[in-house]
């Protein structure tokens, strides 16, 4: 059992809470049973190590067994060591170190996607993670993330995806203008979800391949991006409500698209 909170191994894992360390090593941390479970089931060859406390072994014996069967290195650690590795105040006893995967926009477009999400300068980790989770839930083919957005491999984003990060491609570091051009060239309509839109969501034709374009939590999408999109779409809400949370608006848009684009 690992008990030394000052060991190089512990410091190395903890360093992955920093973006610079994630980029240097090509590794990130998955914290908690659901995220770890999906990493093992959907990306086992990329899982380097699993760290687990004795109490978590008892609670999640099946999960530990799956990891061992997949050839993943399983290390038993005490509670103090796991707490030192994790950036959360209440770690749940399981933490995995996973090699990052970097799909490209070309990879996504080659699959002839029907439904995409493009995040432009979305900075809040919870919003980004929830959008990825919603995209997974409603059958999107991929999530595209601009170079000005939050790092989707940060611990807070990874936790908020609750494992969905391992279910669909998430392409990062994109130039929004170039991405809109590439989508248009592939016949994919782009709908800017913004409160200034004159087109109401129920009136949008979502039967053809399309992408929802979502902007920053505070200032939305700039006019130059809205102008590049096929249409600017507004979710109809009560006049008593000023606006919707980004993740909530994304979920509503994705749910609207889901029935028309979901493949059998």
Descriptive keywords:
264 residues; 60s Ribosomal Protein L30, Chain: A; Alpha/beta knot; four-stranded mixed β-sheet; 12 helices; 11 strands
Can you describe this structure?
By secondary structure, the protein is an alpha/beta fold. The protein folds into two domains: about 10-100, 60s Ribosomal Protein L30, Chain: A (2-Layer Sandwich); about 105-260, SPOUT methyltransferase, trefoil knot domain (Alpha/beta knot, 3-Layer(aba) Sandwich), CATH 3.40.1280. The protein is built from twelve helices and eleven strands. It has helices at about 10-15, 20-25, 35-45, 55-60, 60-70, 80-85, 105-110, 125-135, 155-160, 175-185, 225-230, 245-260; strands spanning about 25-30, 45-50, 75, 95-100, 115-120, 140-145, 170-175, 190-195, 200, 210-215, 230-235. Helix 1 (about 10-15) crosses helix 6 and helix 8 packs parallel to helix 9. The longest helix is centred in the last third of the chain and has 16 residues, at about 245-260. The N and C termini lie far apart (about 45 Å).
């Amino acid at each position: 059992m690992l008990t030394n909170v000052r060991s190089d191994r512990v410091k190395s894992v903890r360093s992955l809470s920093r973006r610079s360390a994630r980029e240097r090593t090509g590794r990130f941390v998955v914290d908690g049973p659901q995220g770890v479970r999906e990493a093992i089931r959907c990306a086992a060859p990329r899982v380097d190590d699993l760290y687990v406390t004795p109490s978590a072994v008892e609670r999640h014996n099946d999960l530990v067994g799956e990891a061992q069967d997949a050839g993943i290195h399983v290390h038993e650690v005490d509670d103090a060591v796991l707490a030192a590795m994790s950036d959360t105040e209440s770690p749940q006893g399981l933490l995995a170190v996973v090699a990052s995967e970097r799909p490209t926009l070309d990879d996504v477009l080659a699959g002839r996607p029907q439904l995409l999400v493009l995040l432009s300068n979305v900075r809040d980790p919870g919003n980004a993670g929830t959008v990825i989770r919603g995209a997974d839930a409603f059958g999107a083919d991929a999530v595209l993330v601009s170079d000005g957005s939050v790092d989707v491999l940060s611990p807070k984003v990874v936790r908020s995806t609750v494992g969905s990060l391992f279910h669909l491609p998430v392409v990062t570091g994109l130039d929004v203008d170039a991405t809109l051009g590439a989508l248009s060239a592939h016949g994919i309509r782009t709908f800017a979800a913004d409160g200034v839109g004159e087109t109401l969501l129920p009136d949008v034709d979502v039967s053809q391949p399309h992408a929802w374009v979502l902007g920053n939590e505070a200032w939305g999408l700039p006019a130059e991006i809205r102008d590049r999109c096929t249409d600017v779409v507004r979710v109809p809400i009560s006049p008593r409500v000023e606006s919707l949370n980004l993740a909530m608006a994304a979920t509503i848009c994705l749910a609207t698209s889901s029935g028309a684009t979901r493949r059998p």
